[in-house]
Design a protein that fits this description.
Layout: H1 9-69, H2 73-121, H3 125-133, H4 139-155, H5 161-172, H6 174-184, H7 190-228, H8 234-244, H9 250-266, H10 268-296, H11 302-354
Helix pairs in contact: 1-2, 1-5, 1-7, 1-11, 2-4, 2-9, 6-7, 7-8, 7-10, 7-11, 8-9, 9-10
């Protein structure tokens, strides 16, 4: 009779160890697959969020037109979309060639700006200290990164057709998708889902209104200030400052860098004046516009905003940084509605029972 090797204690131990190895290997493989799937799904989630912001913008604009004209909401949304399209088309029609020429000039002259900035800094003691502190950085890498930024920042518009088309579909009939989400929730949670979706819509509408106002104000003040100081490429720098203001904390600093470098091509004093000008404009925006935004949406702690931007930038790149703030606002609404308020209700009910 042939003896089964697994029947002995040694055989059972070997088989058990082999099974554990295969189980651990399978778990690790599954974990890696899940991570990749979640990362891909998260990228899709960001695209959906960007599309939702487009729909929220058009419906928010439609709400404003509805209050002014008393027309039906659908007609007001259509009017708002047509007005927005006409405004963007007119902007590119009147200033598109100028902006494109200035972007090309800024991109091609960037290495020369770096050299002139270094030459200007080398004439002062403080400037030499600054040059010494950045001497370890790779100049070619900095220039290629900056040039790539200018190329991609204004070149990705044609690659966002997925977001635009999704935004159009969400704008046409958002009720379908809203009701679809509610239907997916359990019966006991449908009311909470309705409340959460409505509150997220209100928060995002208020945030977008404030951000659009802030971007417009930043662009106008910047172009006025740069034109007053006779800085080249004033229009492009102003539009860049307005667009990058969409990214809290880091955006204004990113917008200030090319303007200061252009200032160095004139003189060190002009670079300092430009830096101060940008800081003053940002101070006005932070103390006038930002409080108005906070009244329309939940208060976002600055440290939490920065951490979310760093995390989102690490996970999803520029799109993650761009959408970190609205995503953080959505998460805070979810936590507030689905956890904090329920805990408060539970605590009040316990106090009532004790009484």
């Amino acid at each position: 009779m042939i003896k089964d090797p697994n029947s002995s204690p040694e055989g059972r131990t070997t088989a058990s160890f082999s099974n554990k190895v295969w189980i651990v290997t399978g778990i690790l493989t599954l974990t890696v697959i899940v991570i990749f799937v979640l990362k891909a799904a998260f990228s899709v989630l960001l695209i959906v969020l960007a599309s939702c912001l487009i729909a929220v913008f058009f419906h928010g604009l439609g709400d404003m037109i509805e209050r002014w004209t008393k027309l039906k909401h659908g007609y007001c949304v259509l009017i708002g979309a047509l007005v927005t399209l006409a405004f963007i088309s007119g902007l590119f029609w009147f200033m598109g060639s100028t902006i494109q020429a200035q972007i090309a000039e800024l991109n091609s002259d960037f290495p020369e700006m770096i050299d002139k900035a270094k030459a200007s800094l080398s004439h002062s003691f403080l400037g030499n200290k600054v040059l010494e502190s950045i001497s370890g950085l790779d100049d070619k890498r900095i220039m290629s990164t900056a040039q790539g930024f200018f190329n991609t920042s204004f070149g990705v518009i044609g690659d966002l057709y997925i977001i635009i088309f999704l935004g159009i579909f969400f704008t046409i009939d958002p009720t379908i998708y809203k009701n679809g989400i509610i239907k997916l929730t359990p019966v006991s949670g449908k009311r909470d889902a309705q409340i959460v979706i409505d509150r997220i819509s209100v928060v995002l509408k208020g945030w977008l209104k404030g951000m659009m106002l802030a971007m417009f104000l930043i662009s106008i003040l910047t172009v006025i200030a740069l034109t007053f100081f006779k800085i080249p490429l004033a229009l492009t720098l102003a539009i860049l400052a307005g667009l990058l203001n969409f990214i809290p904390n880091f955006g204004p600093l990113m917008a200030m860098v090319p303007a200061v470098l252009i200032g160095f091509t004139i003189s060190v004093n002009m670079a300092i004046i430009i830096a101060i000008t940008y800081l003053v404009i940002q101070t006005i925006e932070s103390n006038v516009v930002t409080p108005m935004i906070q009244k329309k949406m939940i208060n976002l702690p600055p440290a939490l905003t920065i951490m979310s931007q760093v995390l989102m930038g690490t996970v999803s790149g520029f799109l993650g940084i761009l959408l970190a703030t609205p995503l953080l606002a959505i998460i805070i609404v979810l936590v507030d509605e689905l956890y904090i308020k329920k805990q408060q209700t539970l605590a009040l009910s316990k106090e009532a029972d004790n009484i």
